[in-house]
């Protein structure tokens, strides 16, 4: 039976991860002002707007941050935790659940950036067409993180700024997200 629960848990994580990724890309695309004429941007907008439009009436953007998309990503993480805990027959205390889902959100964003930076770096290293929609979208999303180090860590023709940013993101996962998960676990057991 635990094997079936593990498989079901993995499928739930994939489904919720896909939904969270869609809304996170929408959030980051708006924040970084991704080219709307990109077919991927249009796809993301088309499939997230029916959910976000009603929420944005109540929760408008703050600067360039789409708070409605951020809320949806966090609620997705929260619901995923509730479903997985429910499958295990355990329901943690609400404060622990809220903190753990916040840690999930932060971890998801950091891991998303690590993957996108790695993929974008690999594509640019392999001289992929810079006008290709995936390369343009990924490049625009990662530029705010890479810009402060751009050109400062070049050895030969290789720019090591993506490597340094990935190391910083990995450290953030260890030093910020892990303690937040621990706090959530402690609070979950209190109830």
TrEMBL record:
Keywords: Membrane, Transmembrane, Transmembrane helix. The keyword Cytoplasm does not apply. The chain crosses the membrane at residues 6-29, 65-88, 108-128, 160-181. It comes from the Bacteria. It holds the Pfam family CCB3_YggT. GO terms for cellular component: membrane. InterPro entries: CCB3/YggT (IPR003425). This is YggT family protein. It comes from Dyella psychrodurans.
């Amino acid at each position: 039976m635990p094997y079936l629960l593990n498989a079901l848990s993995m499928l739930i994580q994939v489904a919720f991860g896909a939904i969270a990724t869609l809304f996170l890309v929408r959030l980051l695309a708006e924040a970084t002002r991704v080219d709307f004429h990109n077919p991927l941007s249009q796809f993301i907008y088309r499939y997230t707007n029916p959910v976000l439009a009603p929420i944005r009436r109540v929760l408008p953007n703050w600067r360039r941050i789409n708070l409605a998309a951020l809320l949806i990503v966090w609620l997705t993480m929260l619901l995923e935790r509730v479903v997985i805990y429910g499958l295990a027959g355990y329901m943690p205390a609400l404060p622990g659940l809220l903190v753990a889902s916040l840690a999930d959100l932060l971890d998801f964003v950091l891991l998303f950036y690590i993957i996108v930076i790695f993929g974008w770096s690999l594509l640019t290293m392999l001289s992929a067409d810079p006008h290709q929609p995936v390369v343009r979208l990924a490049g625009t999303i990662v530029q705010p993180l890479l810009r402060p180090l751009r050109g400062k860590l070049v050895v030969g023709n290789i720019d090591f700024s993506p490597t340094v940013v990935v190391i910083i993101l990995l450290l953030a996962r260890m030093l910020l997200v892990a303690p937040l998960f621990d706090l959530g676990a402690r609070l979950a057991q209190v109830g």
